[in-house]
Amino acid sequence: MKELACRKVILNSNKPLICVSVTGSNLAEIKEQAQVIKRLNPDIVEWRADCLKIENEEKDTFEIAYALKCVHKALRSYPLIFTFRSKEEGGYRHVNFEKYREYYHYVSLEAKKMGVELVDIEMYGKRGVPGLSDMVDEMHSAGLKVIGSYHDFKKTPKRNEILDILKHMEDAGADVCKIACMPKHKGDVFSIYNAAKDADKELSNPIIAISMGELGAVTRVALTQTKSVLTFASLHEDETFEGELRKECIEQMNSLGQVPFKICQTIVDINRRGKLNGNISVIGFMGTGKTTVSKALAEILNCKEVDTDKYLVEKFGKEITEMFEEMSEEEFRDAESVAIEEIAQTKNQIISCGGGAVIRRKNSDILKKTGVIVRLDADPQTIFERCSRRTTRPLLNGNMNIEHIKKLMDERELRYREAADITVNVDSNNRILTCYRIIVALVKKGIIT
Length: 449
Known about the structure:
The chain is of the alpha/beta class. It contains 18 helices and 15 strands. β6 (about 115-120), α4 and β7 form a beta-alpha-beta unit.
């Protein structure tokens, strides 16, 4: 367990905190966001000072000082993180180091009055800059804890490079070491996970490890895997299981990976202390994202994920497309039934099923005996968009059009309905939102406690 005690909060890897950021460009927006934050009631608040639109560049430090007072007045009961994110690392303004240091100097003088507990300093990106070490010492002398951070919006470094970056920041005086990188493929997300595990063993201080975008969004909620002591959620507040997020919120989740606070709070709590009571079998037509959602669920619920198609590939030493070429569909379904029966003998796991797995009632009966069946459903247009660029869909090859997809979906609709204990629509194309809806439904059924 990694822990850091500040004045009013404790950062603890066994009980991570959830932070939301004030990003208003003017005082009116800051006050408006503060009202939302009060309703959400997060553990800690970050003020992104770089988001403030400066009216007079000659008095920029004064304007930041005044805005900080407004943030504190509006959110007096919340401990604050002060952050000025440079444009080089995804922020809104570019300033030279002397100006950057000037802002933080003011904060160090007023920290106790303004409720500032931590400051975020770009310690890796500014490595080698004269005066950085003195700046960190000044923050510590003022009783502040330093989050040493590094952000890469273009790529994700290799596992060993990530560890080296985190080590560098710890050696440079960071009390918490934070890294956030943009993944290009799922392997990059695993690089963050694996480097975080290495850092948990090799570093003395707590860490925050984030993979950005929708692809990496699970790292924002599966904090037992990243060993992170803190995560960042967005201010959207209108989500319920029965309701829908606004379109712009889903677009933000899909581009930036930011998770609305209430969703983040629910999933982080489940990730930390949730218990799975039985198997969760995920079914649905091809292209509904069964594998993607199953893997995310497994990370959130800290359990094993088994893909029936991959199980068959390993068992027969052939790809699914090859099996369809060499077997009749009936023979393939026989092999699939045997695989499902073998897989279902293990309890408390996520089973990602092939698209036609529950066409046979026998298979759904086996799966229901060990837990619940979750159906992922989507519009034919969504399926077409996801599958049209792939050649690994044997039932669609040569018939890649919406009409054929709808025909196949209609043929399976009754069996899917009969088999499913719950159905979740996945047209949003967001794995975290889908996982949240599944989790809420399964908590009600007692499958997750």
